[in-house]
Amino acid sequence: xxxxxxxxxxxxxxxxxxxxxxxxxxxxxxxxxxxxxxxxxxxxxxxxxxxxxxxxxxxxxxxxxxxxxxxxxxxxxxxxxxxxxxxxxxxxxxxxxxxxxxxxxxxxxxxxxxxxxxxxxxxxxxxxxxxxxxxxxxxxxxxxxxxxxxxxxxxxxxxxxxxxxxxxxxxxxxxxxxxxxxxxxxxxxxxxxxxxxxxxxxxxxxxxxxxxxxxxxxxxxxxxxxxxxxxxxxxxxxxxxxxxxxxxxxxxxxxxxxxxxxxxxxxxxxxxxxxxxxxxxxxxxxxxxxxxxxxxxxxxxxxxxxxxxxxxxxxxxxxxxxxxxxxxxxxxxxxx
Length: 336
Prior knowledge:
Elements: H1 2-13, H2 15-21, H3 31-34, H4 36-43, H5 47-67, H6 71-91, H7 94-108, H8 127-151, H9 165-189, H10 196-205, H11 210-237, H12 241-260, H13 265-280, H14 286-335
């Protein structure tokens, strides 16, 4: 029964995207879905957190559109995003923050969303071109907030998993270094829509605690390669755009359910990779997109492993001091 209810909620959440897909604003359909999943996950913790998430993700997309043309500005923005996720980890909100940062990060290093119109409109250029994507994201996010408030009653609440201050510090610094340097490198030397997969990999693979990060590198690599292989085989056997798009939407639907149920991470990575490859290949070769995604995933995973290990070694004395200080404070409190 819970699966059926979640399935119905996910379909209802997609209404703004479906409506936009039937209008001349089709390129904005995906933007309307950017804030849906993080708001849905935040609402399982608290509606107040979901409301904050709705506004912040719209503001982040506006900053992304503003910084897009300038590599150094884009890199600094992602440094702030990494530090912000580290702060969220201290409160146990890092999963929501990561999911909410994935698509904006991809937009930051990709081409701006444009709408072809027969005559100039307020969103054809200038400030309107910056504001429109953020407004569409806000529309989808607030719709998700409304649906979550109305239909998520009765579902089990999600308790935030707080991260120790020292681990949250290392996590935030690692993300800031990884995201900032990778964004700068992509903006300068790897332009193109698929290079954003490096940032996506960093965000999804990196986790508080190096042991968990190593495990995610392995499971994500396995899931990504197998999901990409499945998408490529499907593209060879059934090379029809309608079939591939439908399969991509079904994979995306499965990804959302797997995220909500905290399923095996390799299975989640499999569904996510298949969905993104099938939906983002456009008129090009699915196999070509598949190969690029896998390559960029390997690059992102290697960067994460190297930087996480280096930072753990560099900051180990600070972590140990923080842990000893915390233990000492607890003993003093108990002694009273």
